[in-house]
Amino acid sequence: xxxxxxxxxxxxxxxxxxxxxxxxxxxxxxxxxxxxxxxxxxxxxxxxxxxxxxxxxxxxxxxxxxxxxxxxxxxxxxxxxxxxxxxxxxxxxxxxxxxxxxxxxxxxxxxxxxxxxxxxxxxxxxxxxxxxxxxxxxxxxxxxxxxxxxxxxxxxxxxxxxxxxxxxxxxxxxxxxxxxxxxxxxxxxxxxxxxxxxxxxxxxxxxxxxxxxxxxxxxxxxxxxxxxxxxxxxxxxxxxxxxxxxxxxxxxxxxxxxxxxxxxxxxxxxxxxxxxxxxxxxxxxxxxxxxxxxxxxxxxxxxxxxxxxxxxxxxxxxxxxxxxxxxxxxxxxxxxxxxxxxxxxxxxxxxxxxxxxxxxxxxxxxxxxxxxxxxxxxxxxxxxxxxxxxxxxxxxxxxxxxxxxxxxxxxxxxxxxxxxxxxxxxxxxxxxxxxxxxxxxxxxxxxxxxxxxxxxxxxxxxxxxxxxxxxxxxxxxxxxxxxxxxxxxxxxxxxxxxxxxxxxxxxxxxxxxxxxxxxxxxxxxxxxxxxxxxxxxxxxxxxxxxxxxxxxxxxxxxxxxxxxxxxxxxxxxxxxxxxxxxxxxxxxxxxxxxxxxxxxxxxxxxxxxxxxx
Length: 613
Prior knowledge:
CATH superfamily of the largest domain: Bira Bifunctional Protein, Domain 2
Number of domains: 3
CATH topology of the largest domain: BirA Bifunctional Protein, domain 2
CATH architecture of the largest domain: 2-Layer Sandwich
Helix content: 25-40%
Structural class: alpha+beta
Strand content: 15-25%
Shape: globular
CATH class of the largest domain: Alpha Beta
């Protein structure tokens, strides 16, 4: 092999290299025979070079070439020559030259392929994941993994330039409640005890702030035992950031600078220096989600002002039931918003058929909507009208409704009512997102960033009748709410912030609690007594007793960032070895059973699942 080791790669040769003798190593991408001449497209991760076997080649060389099939791994030696003008391939970086083969060594043969490498993006996901080592050779995966590397490198460049240290935190940690189930690692030395894999480095990065490292970052591996989906995996990577002596605006500004640098460096794209900002309430009221896609407008409107003068009883009942629930909650000290009737204007879609509207209604019902009412805007701009659906109930106020909703003739008005305003918003927000996709409004080459700010600090669990942390228990309540934390948890806003990109949560963070007494108050509100808090978080609260500085952070998701930069919709497309939708690795068949000896060493026994489980 030493004599046939490559002297250049398959993407490097140009016209000025004509006359050089070179050795290339790579895979046979394609082979074509034309009479006595053979053409081999030889590929490595740098590109493709055409290798030619001219007429009159030695018989032993021709025999070897005749044996070649796609994905044979070979070494090829020959002289570079310029292609005739009419044979230049402008679609190849090496298209002005070819290498005339003098010597060939087959380094390894390939069996019949389960799919063609250059068509891998169109192959079923199951097959691609089973033969991931072949899928990784495809142009799409090669491009996306290169982008992932470039993004990671750019992150390190930017963070280092801003004075941050990259510090590793443990992957064997104490199991603490952080929202999802932990992956547990049994200890052989301490039977019955377990490490957990980190859902995030949350507690450790806070301890680093106590330790005086005021600017920390890490490209961190994280693990959560939860159901997989397109933008979620059991193991994932985040750009973990923490800073001391900062406010929310400091972290927001740093993150905007980081993303601006990464997009310019990796895509040569300029993005706004300052991103759009919305409060949580604005996001929910206008877009029905705290992850709004702002590549298209189509805001949700309030239809409640028109309900009283109309004759559609279902809308009136929803508002009345919501008000009754609100008053009942107030009597128990629980702040509820009440009901809502919300409208969405689909521009130019008055031609939607009943079947298409029913498809939208089915989608809304996934999000607990009871139905989807509709009306079509008719007439002229000066004298608009409404027809179809529930239009007859609002005939007298048709012009007021069209004007108030800023609709135009030819538009379709969609309405959802519910006694819980959040349901009306969320369901209509889901319809908005579907329309955005169906109408081709989600341009993958457009990047729309938005900060979501002022999240509620607590959420009320109606099933367990208790308050829970909306994000996590270490988020700082905004100063103006400190005096009413216990009296009115539902009204408390946290110093929380999410960054959303094209409808995906791209980063989440908060200013943290650094005062042990304030942390105890939060534990008490969410139902964690002092003994339990000491057992689960004692090492953190103990650290806070020794001059913990004010601090905060954020954690952009690397997988989702690269996914969106690559124009994809699944993080499987940017992770070298992902799991499938059932958290299974089809390539190595994990998770798998282990030998009884291993279980015995860990003092573990496998209990067969019951019918109930």
